Amino acid sequence: MKKKLLIITTGGTIASVKDAAGLVPSLSSEELLSYLPEFGEDILLTTKAMYNLDSTDITPKHWLEVAEAIKADYDKYDGFVVCHGTDTMAYTAAALSYLIRNSVKPIVLTGAQKPIGFEITDAKKNLRDSIIYAADDESHGVQIVFDGEVIIGTRAKKTKSLSYAAFSSINYPLLASIHEGRIIRYMKQERPEGEPLFSDKLNDKVFLLKLTPGISPVLLPEIFKNYDAIIIESFGVGGIPETLEEVLFAELSKYRPEEKVLVMTTQVTYEGSHLETYEVGKKLSESFSILEARDMTLETVLTKLMWILADDSLDWEGICDKFYSPVSEDTLY
Q: How do residues 211-234 score in pLDDT, each as one tens digit?
C-alpha cells in the first residue's frame, strides 16, 4: 500500500547555502527534495515549509507550531519527517515527544552536518534514511534518524559538533540502524493503542543553572523570582557546593515546592545523577522536596518540565507523578 509522508522543513544546515555571511538556511522544501532520487510509487511525498531558521533560533513557540502542524494533518499522512538544524534538534525531539504522545504514526527528525547542495554531504543519506524509516509499518512515535542510527526522541543528544555521527543515544540503546536502505531493528516497540494525545501549551519559565567551581550565589534570588522551575546542572552524581548552600536553602524555604520546582541533574553525560551518594546531595534532598533527573538527558528534563508546568492545577504530588512517569512507551520518561 502506498505510504503518504509529509516532509516539514524548518531550515537548518541541511537547507543552507553558502554566502559571504556563512551558511544561511534558504532552500525551499521542494528544492530540498529535488536532491533525492525518486522513491517510486510506494511512497508519496508532500512538503510543507514552516521556517528557514538556524536551529539556534528555534524556541518553544516553534515546537508548539510544529506539533500543531502535525496535528492538523495527522489523519492525511502515514508519517512525518521534520528537517531541522542539528544544534537544537534534541530539544525539539524531546519536546515533540511530550506534545504528541501515543502516536502510532512515526514522527522523524533529521538534518545534516553539511548542506544538501554540497558535493560531499551527509544530508542526502540522512533525509533518505528518514523517509525509509517513516514509511515502515513498524515505526511509530518520535525519533531522530541521523548517520544511519535511530534514536528515541527523549534519549538523543548532540555530542559531536562537526562529525557526521553527531548524535548519541544517552543511557539507552539505539532503536535501529539503517544500512543501504534496510532497517535493522534492535528493539521492538509496542504499538500504541487508542488515539494520539496532543498538547498545545508549554511553560517556558524554566531556568538552567550550570555549576562551576566557586560559583557565586548572587543571582539566585533573581532566578527564583523570575522562573517557575530551576534545573541545577551539578557535578558528578549531584550536590550543592558550600558557596550556594545558604542562599539556595533560604530561597527554597520561601516557596512551596510546586511554586518553585527544583530539579537536580548532572553535567556528566552518562549514567545519571545519584543525590544520595554524598553529603552535599543528601542534605539537599532530605531538607526539601525536589526532583532528581536520574538518567534523563538535560533536553528531556527541560522540555518535560515545560510540558508539566503548563498545567498550573497540579500540586506537588501531581508534578512528581508526571515527572517520573513515562507518558508512553515511546518516551521512557
A: 999 999 999 999 999 999 999 999
Question: How far is 13 from 111, CA to CA, in rounded Å?
Answer: 7
Grid look-up 525551499 returns 28
- Write out pLDDT tens, residues 129-161: 999 999 999 999 999 999 999 999 999 999 999
Q: Active-site positions?
A: 13
Give the residues across from 168 on adjacent strands: 157
Alpha-carbon radius of gyration of the chain: 21
For 188-298, list the strands marked E by DSSP.
197-198, 206-210, 229-234, 261-266, 291-292
Q: Is 30 left (phi over 0), alpha (psi -120 to 50) or beta?
A: alpha
Instruction: Find the helix or strand (DSSP H, E) in which 54 lies.
Output: none
Q: Look up residue 191 and give its DSSP letter.
A: P
Other C-beta atoms closer than 10 Å to the C-beta of 226 total 9
